[in-house]
Amino acid sequence: MVDDFPSRRLRVVVAEDEVLTRLAVADELRDNGFDVREASNAEEALTVLESEMAQVDALFTDIDMPGSMNGLELALRARQHRPRLSVLVTSGKHKVSDDFVLTHSRFVAKPYDISDIAKIIHDLVGR
What's the pTM? Predict the structure, then answer.
């Protein structure tokens, strides 16, 4: 468990179409004190982000998801509403530069160590 979190719980939207991966990431984040909202595709995530944007600290998203928008497009659309939103992007098929959306972003290739996700997001939000 990450022990240097601020007193306010950080809110993260987890957008991942692979159910077991999404549940594992969401559980890991909750175990580390995050308030987590889950979405199975980019459209669902954008709906959550738009309704709770002022309260969302970070977005965790896979690149490849079903629907009309992928995770990178989701990140860019979310950044239009909140330019400093922290974004962690992941993929098992693509490689993306850490500066794909300028600041407060990072790419982590699959497979990743799930225990690192909370620390990475915390570091992104803290920048």
Answer: 0.88
